Amino acid sequence: MSELMHLIYSSAATQHFGRDELVELLDRARTTNSKLDISGMLLYIDGSFLQVLEGAPDQVDALFSHIAKDSRHTTVVTIIREPIAKRTFSDWSMGFADVSTDDLNEIDGLNDFFTGEACFTGLGAGRTKKLLNAFKSGRWRSRIEGITPPATPSVAREREPSAPPTPDPAPPELALDIENLAVSFAFQPIVDVANQQISSYEAIVKTDSGGSAEEFLSPHMAGPNSGLLQRELQHRAIALAAKLGLNTGLTLKYSASGIEEADQLMSETLEIGERYGFTGNQITLEIDQDQLTGDTSWFAAVIQKQRGLGLRFSIDHFGDGRSGLSLIDAYQPDSVALNRNLVTGIESHGARQAIVRGVIQTCDDLGIDLIAKHVETEAEIAWFRYEGVELFQGTIIAPPTFEKLSGDIGYTERLAA
Amino acid sequence: MIEMPAFSFAFQPIVDVSIGQVVSQEALVRGPEGESAYSVLSRLVPPDIYQLDEQLRAAAIRLAAQIGGPEALHLNLNLMPRSLEVSPSALASTLEAARDCGLPPEAITIEITESEIIHDIEGFVAVANQYRGTGIQYAIDDFGAGYAGLNLLAEFQPDALKLDRQLVAGIEGHGPRQAIVRGVRRTCEDLGIDVIAEGVETEAEFAWFRSEGITLFQGYLLARPGFEQLPDVVIPGAEVLRQLPRVA
What we know:
The complex is a heterodimer. Helix content of chain A is 33%, strand content 22%. By secondary structure, chain A is α/β, with parallel strands linked by helices. By secondary structure, chain B is of the alpha/beta class. Chain B is built from 10 helices and 11 strands. Chain B has helices at residues 37-41, 48-68, 83-86, 90-100, 114-119, 121-132, 150-155, 165-168, 175-191, 203-211, and strands spanning 8-16, 21-30, 75-78, 108-113, 137-143, 160-163, 194-198, 216-218, 226-227, 233-234, 240-241. In chain B, the strands form 2 sheets. An 8-stranded mixed beta barrel of chain B has the order 1-2-3-4-5-6-7-8. A two-stranded antiparallel sheet of chain B has the order 10-11. In chain B, helix 2 (48-68) runs parallel beside helix 4. The interface between A and B is large, with 53 and 41 residues.
């Protein structure tokens, strides 16, 4: 059995495609495709393309990378790339459908999938058919008009690989000199791009010289000292934020591993906050589910209670590890911060887009804020803005500043312009 | 070589209510007299349990083909966690059993739980895709129950996913679950993945999913598992679908 796969992508035309242009495009595609033994179909609706390519994996990949570079379309999004048992469009080197332009149907060789229904209903009930339906009903369409993702995604910066949280199996008794802990904080804005406001600053723990504190703190994060450490870090972050005159929200990582003491620790956070002049609902605790050990339902009860007392909650790393859908039901958080892998390069990754659209729908329905964290490129921001996301955090929007509250959201103003 | 416990199967239909048709039968392991799955599986430990897992799928295919005949038969078969890792031939033997009974690979859907996949996602996707070319289909079982789920869909798109019973139970009165299901449905629609409401027990649950456009159902409300038979199906508001066993 020779290997087969299909690749389905969507894109937006950068130029007007009338009857002549489409016929020319199709002619060339058919010549190339029959040489490569690639079959498939091309659908054009009102400025948007959806194309199915079927064939040997090497050939399809090579052809697609060639197609992706064609300047006549942009925002090329790979929706599906997977092995298939058989071709859906075996008879066609490249079928074509155009829903909006009736007269194209009369041109010899152009097949009207939807108006004539014949070919379309003849498709097996596979993923291709479902995706064509999704496209027909308006999904996967990005036209060049009005708000549109940018034409050329900027190159993603090289970044450190995100270190998965490694729960220390049995941490030895590590000495932790809590009094003389040489740490301080950087603050990074979480920006409401739609209203051009800083909605909160996240306190990021650093060494007292501004370096990464992860290495010397992480051994304590999961051990018996984690509660002690949590208490100390929160106290210091709140004190520093108050000293810097913070008047927005303050986001703190909740990193204690045992949840038995959660109620006590959270009550203290509120107390300390009050002592430094913070009001109710100003402090948000970011929950990293992978750092927690113990009974989730008990923790959920604590969260509900503490929310009633004036703390806000955010689920961090959403979509990754144990931070999944069931937590939305269990915790009913105020906000959800997407995990990095659902953000990076989203403008060209169809499966991630579909996932994020689902999360957006769920959050919208429940009044939960969605935060696009770790955004690093304009293309990522544009995609999220297009989907209606308003809260962003990332170096490109505003980098963390050590022991300082940077109010510079000039980039955001440019975005809104 | 230890002695394998005696076993048989019950079958529970998955129904597409929009066309009023049974689209598949899930094979559920039972004791020889209809005892619970637990009574069969609890006495085994790895690696014997993986060996049994393969035998179970082959036996389920044979029994179903014998009861219902191979024509128009589609089966959902469970894959025990870590089976593919321990026994890479697990799917090959299943397909072979199907072929022997006159069933094409397209008639087989393998059900996997999300925890199984999360355990070694790259390994799983590699093996699953290797067999995808045959036409075999995959469904993720108990979706939304565990912690995972979302990231999984970025790496692997199954043909269908079955909403976990926890999400389904009492959904008509539970806003967060409704919102989660609507989100999942949106994601699946965009990826061409079927959504199956599993464990539907009440008319109110059924009505809620219908109003959201879900058409695939499995649960006591429509059909209880039938021991060694393909049970009749009751679609609320429609006629009874008879699944008459063929006379051999």
